[in-house]
Amino acid sequence: MTNKASLRDLTFHDLRHEATIHLARIYTNPLELRRVTGHKDIKSLDRYYQSHTEDLAAKAIAHEKRSSADKE
User: Fold this and answer.
1) pLDDT tens track for 31-66
2) From CA 32, how far away is CA 37, in angstroms rounded?
3) DSSP annotation string for 1-63
């Protein structure tokens, strides 16, 4: 099937990495994400998923906005 799609060197791990990135947008809690992806521990999950800088920055901004609103 990968030959028909002209994909070379596509492995299960490539697909798992891609799926983990997409699932991380749904399951933001790393423990939940680990359970969904089937990784044994957080360290093994970390091999497949690295947060994008933009996502981390957006989370920090959202947290700051919530903190500011709580103080008012």
Assistant:
1) 999 999 999 998 988 887 777 777 778 888 988 988
2) 9
3) -TTTTT--S--HHHHHHHHHHHHHHH--SHHHHHHHHT-SSHHHHHHH----HHHHHHHHHHH
What residue type is assigned to position 67 of the chain? S
**61 or 1, which is more confident?**
61
> How many Cα atoms are found within 13 Å in the side-chain-facing hemisphere of 15?
7
Of 16, 21, 32, 31, nearest to 55 by C-alpha is 21
**First and final C-alpha spacing in the chain:** 58
CA 8, CA 32: separation in Å to the nearest integer?
A: 32
